[in-house]
Amino acid sequence: MRKIALLSALLCVYAAAYTQPDTIDEKGLDEAVVYSNKFIEKKKNLAQKIDIISARTIAKFNSQNTGDLLINTGNVFVQKSQQGGSSPVLRGFEASRVLLVVDGVRLNNAVYRAGHLQNIITVDQNMLERVEVLYGPSSTIYGSDALGGVIQFRTKSPVLSSGNKNFLATGSGFVRYSSANNEKTGHADVSLSGKKFGWLQSYTYSDFGDMKMGDHYRDKYSNFGRRSNYIETINGVDRIVTSDDDRIQRFSGYKQWDITQKLLFKLSDKVSHRLNFQYSNSSNIPRYDRLQDTRNFGGSIGTTLRYAEWFYGPQTRVMGGYELNVEKLGFLDGLKVNLNYQDIKESRQQREYLRYDRFDSRREHIKVAAFNVDGRKVWGNNEVSMGIDGQLNDVKSVADRTNLTTGAVTKLDPRYPDGKNKMNYFGLYFQHLLKMKNEKLILNDGIRFQAVSLHSIIVDNSFFNLPVTKIDQTPLAVTGNIGLVYMPSPTIRLTGNISSGFRAPNIDDAVKIFESSSATKRVLIPNPDIKPEYTYNFDLGFSYTTPEKVYFEITAFYTLFQNAIASAPFKLNGQDSIMYNGVISAVYASQNVNKAYVRGFNARLKIELGKKVAMDNTISHTYGRYKNPDGTKKPLDHIPPLFGKSGFTYTDKKFNAEVYGMYNGWKRIKDYNPDGEDNGQYATPDGMPAWFTLNWRSGYSFTKNLSMQLSVENILDKNYRYFASGFSAPGRNFIVSFRTSF
């Protein structure tokens, strides 16, 4: 770890780099605005730590998906179980404990799991106007699930014509190729607008081949992650095939396409209507980590790869939304109404080696209808945002087993109950801001009242003979926040913030039946007695900005985690283990394991060394532990190791260039949670080793409307994995793209 810290420091002193700041708006902190309070607010007035990723930065990062975009900031850790997956972690919280929001619409639904998610890749980063990352509990405004924070995505909208122009046509597009996975991506968007009406349409298509990992690793783990063999089905017969290149992660590639359409109608200077349609779909996405699992089949087969097939079916997300914006309506200075509907389909398909009679398919269809009504009132030095919101979830879960030889289809136990599965959220909030001492002292405070209902019925109980076939929960919660911002001078900003978070157990927590990996041999069953989770967070922040364009920021936090939900040993009809999918598996269930805590800090130092050169560095550290009833402690899962980014940028009128380092510290096996989602089976016997990559990217503008980008990622061709990931990161990767606009 000392070597990594030294390399990071050397990069800070000697490297040279390219873009605008990763997460600070190009106009600077004072002018930066955020939409996190539902209405535009200056970032400097908010006590909560918020990072901004602008459209310009998104384009220059040139990431393959939205998860990679977050990784590139150096501020957000992201876990991957397969190439078609990305699960962001905020302050030690992940998946269903981090809220994802797109254009004011909650993506989190009733089956967002506590493990690792891939849903974020259904957001097309090529159509994002900006990303706002809110750190720490954010339940006052956003309700359930925002324990670790919120990642809010805002997509681009049509730009209406102005001045003497009665018609405006704009558009952009790019093509990109990446060598590490033979990626081929194309994107095009066009906007046609008048003075009152605008239309925007975009298309993105990506074809990702099998990912090739790096070739250089520590001598002790020289073969770590290498794909020495795999199962291939030839003429309907499974065969164990020796890989001709064990650095290629066979069966990790997939395809994805995204469509966005927006219609804007500006009725007057004060009233506008917006329709928003988003569609994302994919090919089958192989679950690469499961394709590495082994099993002892006995007899002449012995121990070998377990699964001939394990993939997610096409991940489909359809969203339609209507938004009304009104200025000066009655006593309100602003009103927003958002009505939206989502239709999501996902599935899990698997078949064990040589089991042609057991192709198992589990499919989920989630329908979500939601509304938000938000108002804003400003008087004197006071600003109040208030609103009501609701989300209605309906989940249908089915499963069957197909005999590929005979074609016979039989019923199988589904992932969720086969009857009605409904979960609804309703909330009311008030968020207040008071400016004092000539805006040098600013108070942030708010409160939220939340009601949740969950109803689930098991119709066919023949598979497990569960003691409970109907689960009903109706938790209520009150959450809030209070914080102060103090700016004694234009260069210094101090913040203190106390906030609480709330997450109601969803259908995935309470009633899921799920098999863990082959190594752990566990099966998770429903637990109707599970209770909501709460977090209570304390933040202290300091930032310093000078006229010479030196920016330093550090934030420390401590989070108490109450009623934390985690997998723990359980009994089914008095038995602590059962036969599941032909394997004797220990019975586990999601349970409230009393208390936990998380603490840590993140810091950033940015120095503009001249008009064209800047240095930028980030570092984040998190530590978390469960507190057992007997007074002992064990590691909290989802806690990333020390990570960050260091580099320098060079920016000229036509040319920009960047060299930077990304790094992660050690995650020792003793710091893995043995019962959670840390996936120790996909690490080395000692844990996940520290790593450092050196990277370079550049861009050149031939004309105002045509540019080229060239990049080399992982120049040293390091073989590494992110903590908790069962999929190795790309090796040396050459990237070229061409962008055009009109």
Describe this structure in words.
By secondary structure, the protein is mainly beta. The protein has a single domain (2-741), classed as TonB-dependent receptor, beta-barrel domain (Maltoporin, Chain A, Beta Barrel), CATH 2.40.170. The chain has five helices and 50 strands. The strands form nine sheets. The chain has a 22-stranded antiparallel β-barrel. It has a five-stranded mixed β-sheet with strand order 3-9-10-7-8. Strands 34, 35, 38, 39 and 40 form a five-stranded mixed β-sheet that branches. It is globular and about 80 Å long. The model is unreliable at 1-30 (pLDDT under 50).
Pick out its properties:
globular; 742 residues; five-stranded mixed sheet; 55% strand; 22-stranded antiparallel barrel; mainly beta; 5 helices; Maltoporin, Chain A
Q: What structural category characterises the helix and strand content? A: mainly beta
Q: Oligomer, anyone?
A: single chain
CATH class division: Mainly Beta
The CATH architecture term is Beta Barrel
Task: Provide mean pLDDT, rounded.
Answer: 91
How many distinct domains? 1
Contiguous runs where pLDDT drops below 50 for at least 5 residues: 1-30
Radius of gyration: 25 Å
- End-to-end separation in angstroms reads 48 Å
